[in-house]
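Entry 14. Ran structure prediction on the chain below.
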Amino acid sequence: MKGLHKIPIREKSKVLYLGAASGTTVSHVSDIVGREGKVYCVEFAQRSFRDLVNNVSKNRINTVPIFEDARFPSRYRTLVSEVDSAYCDIAQPDQARILAENLDTFLDPGNEFLMAIKARSIDVTKDPNAIFRQEAETLKKRGNTIEEMVRLDPFEKDHCMVRGRK
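Output, structure tokens:
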């Protein structure tokens, strides 16, 4: 939890996971939502996607691997129903914008999201705190509310977890 007051991922919920990579954190989300939940796992890197399928999807019937780029939610709209929450773990300079596009497509107003901001993936020359504020502001401008921001140091250097609500 690292100081977060709550996690918006619950048993039986449907979660959109952006940046699933090889599935390490996906497996934890899968455990939380349980057999009656669903985790839609979006990953665009071919090698990571292969690992995702091998590591997670074969053994976890509640995961749906989607080989697609999270920047284009319309490309996988037919594969994902509306979700109860979203988890964004992508390393892209415009990750807040990408998350906002997905929230607009898949998340009902009032539902919550998590975003792991990786400051050094956005700009290695800027102060990480300035990047965290900038990304939070991008989400706010898109009509979302930021409820918590927690630095993940020392576990993940220059990372911040954001919990918000659409």
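Residues 14-165 form a domain with the Rossmann fold fold (CATH 3.40.50.150). Will compare against last week's run tomorrow.
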